[in-house]
Predict the structure of IGF like family member 3.
Amino acid sequence: MWVEPTVLRPLMWVVFLLLQCSKVITNSFVSSGLWMCQPTPRCEDQIYNPLEQCCDDETVLPLNRTRCCGPNCNFWPCFELCCPESYGLQKFVVRSKVLGVKSQCSSSPISRDCSQVNTLPLAM
């Protein structure tokens, strides 16, 4: 079957452009760089890198930062909450933050009880 070259030329360009576009789309999903169309993570007026930092109480912290929760317990503020269980006995529990939700002591799952022995988290 004979097809006129003038008819094939525009079709070849369309196929070429489609192939090039598919390479760009595929490569953008594979690359580990940030996408320019993604919103930049912010903590108040500061920009931060969510692969290395978090926003906790309007402060940028490194992911491996720890804090004290009660007299004998540490927790990671990027991933956990320190919650008082009772104010009279000064009993504390560490609760897990739920990703994508404004975590609160009343609704977050308990990670560990700080009154128990061996409640210090392992080093990262």
About this structure: Residues 42-113 form one domain. Residues 29 and 48 are 22 Å apart (CA to CA). Strands lie at 42-43, 46-47, 53-56, 59-62, 67-68, 74-75, 80-86, 91-96, 110-113. The radius of gyration is 26 Å.
